[in-house]
Amino acid sequence: MDAIELKDKAEAWLRADPDPATVAELREVLVRGDAADLADRFAGDLEFGTAGLRGVMGAGPNRMNRAVVRRTTAGLARYLKATVPDVVRRGVVVGRDGRRLSAELAEDTARVLAAEGIPAHVFPSLVPTPLVAFATLHLNAAAGVMVTASHNPPEYNGFKVYWGNGAQIIPPHDKGIAAEISRVEPANQVRLLAVDEARARGLWHELPDSLGEEYLAAILRLRVHGRGSDSLRIVYTAMHGVGGVWMERALARAGFRHVHVVAEQHQPDGTFPTVRFPNPEEPGAMDLSLATAGRVNADLVLANDPDADRLAVMVRGEDGALRMLTGNEVGVLLGHYVLAQGARQAAGATPHVVTTIVSSTQLGDMARELGAAYDEVLTGFKWIANRSLERERAEGTRFVFGYEEALGYCVGTVTRDKDGVGAALVFADLAAWCEARGTTVAGYLEEIQRRFGLYVSAQRNFTFPGAQGAQVIARIMEGLRASPLSRVGSRTVRAVTDYKKGEKLPPSNVLAFELEGGGRVTARPSGTEPKIKYYFELKETPRPGEPVSAARARAEAQLQQFIDAFLALARERGQPEVTA
């Protein structure tokens, strides 16, 4: 795109942008003559795909802003009217988190829906993403929209869409909605109803507090042990997000008497003043939690991300020190707990557990031994939820647990998406059960590892921002395809699965290399960030009488050698020399 064409596109955008703030921002870019910035803003439309929309806030079609959200909502509304006959009766749930611009984007969403004749069921205050997923199901809405960018940095926001089944959208709906969006008129021509008029016409319904109470009651019923603890000391952080009040209520009603919040991160704040990247997995994000845990001598640390759909956990290890559990370890603990303890309490249908192709294979090993149905699906919770619904309809299975290693967990069917509040409550219940039987969470994990094997995993991410980043990531993936790996270090590659071919699952740009003797590395571009991600896993068997810590140290040393060998091969196939 040459400079003249780029300037013409910018001027056309300015004429159609209904938001004075982004108009002023783009005019300043034009005055500054920043060609690279302008080119990136107009490199294309922000793609409607995984979880709807997500991007950096700002002016232009490749950014999150009011113009983009108004057109997106109009496209969603028109697709719903074309495919859901009773959408004007059922309506759409609309919620928001505490990020900058979330209030304006949520109001625009509801007003556009109302102008299209679709009732908007609006949360009047900040809510966690799981509550929108719950409300979509509970109200039998045709869809749900949550304005959030989850765990992304403060400059991001997003528009997450649920279908009427409570799960995130999958094909063909994502493509159908995107096609409708492409046909929507310029943003300043998209109709909106004033809030008062929408209320008067029965097209704006504020959701009552009682809905939140019903959600809390539902997640409390997910507990297996169900007796809380008078002595377990828990630290909780909301990471400047919206989970705080909900976690406090849930833990108090479950009977946990010693819950300490990280005060500096407890209130919603879209600037995230204590963390650059509000993701519990990021270096430094848990420092304040650790400091609080040290002051109160905590047994357990629970952390949500800003929209409370993810959960991170720290527990006391064999040496008495707190350590962060990996997403896979949390998944294995919850999965085993629900299958081995919870399943005993429920007769009837076969329990069903689901994870993703980049998560640990250990859940499958446990499921097979414990008599549960098991599936692996593509990355993203939408695939977990929709697969559970498919098997329920076809086979009458009973979904009890699903997880992805990126700290996403769903226990039961209160929601059909990851739920960091519900999962945290069940994990606290697990910890209380361990305490009641005279052990710890770390001790319970060791029991599982001695029985099913010690699986160690790691992830390496490489970021390539801007319009050129997508091209770099594409070259890396094609390099791995063009020159397949036959060995990684001392290990022979026994099988390569290219999920782009769509042989077992829907086509996806993912490559998996399975190794002789156990082990796997999976490569894929992120669906929400400008990253390529590599996932590594190896299995080790603790020797009789050997401390699990010694087996873990041996396995992690082997894993590091494996990672180093793979990354060297990736660099030969186009991976630039950058820091993970």
From TrEMBL:
Superkingdom, according to UniProt?
A: Bacteria
Q: Output the CDD domains linked to this UniProt entry.
A: PGM2 (cd05799)
Keywords attached to this Swiss-Prot or TrEMBL record, sorted alphabetically, are:
Isomerase, Magnesium, Metal-binding, Phosphoprotein
Q: By its UniProt entry, which SUPFAM superfamilies does this protein fall under? A: Phosphoglucomutase, C-terminal domain, Phosphoglucomutase, first 3 domains
- Xref: InterPro entries: A-D-PHexomutase_a/b/a-I (IPR005844), A-D-PHexomutase_a/b/a-I/II/III (IPR016055), A-D-PHexomutase_a/b/a-II (IPR005845), A-D-PHexomutase_a/b/a-III (IPR005846), A-D-PHexomutase_C (IPR005843), A-D-PHexomutase_C_sf (IPR036900), A-D-PHexomutase_CS (IPR016066), Alpha-D-phosphohexomutase_SF (IPR005841)
Q: Which GO terms describe its biological process?
A: carbohydrate metabolic process; purine ribonucleoside salvage
Q: Which PROSITE patterns match?
A: PGM_PMM
Q: Which residues form the Alpha-D-phosphohexomutase C-terminal domain?
A: 502-539
One Pfam family of this protein, by short name? PGM_PMM_I
- The UniProt record lists the Alpha-D-phosphohexomutase alpha/beta/alpha domain at 47-185, 228-314, 327-447
Gene3D superfamilies according to UniProt: Alpha-D-Glucose-1,6-Bisphosphate, subunit A, domain 3, Alpha-D-phosphohexomutase, C-terminal domain
Which family is annotated? Belongs to the phosphohexose mutase family.
Under the heading PANTHER family, the entry gives: PHOSPHOGLUCOMUTASE 2B-RELATED, PHOSPHOMANNOMUTASE 45A
This chain belongs to the protein called: Phosphomannomutase pmmB
Gene source species: Cystobacter fuscus (strain ATCC 25194 / DSM 2262 / NBRC 100088 / M29)
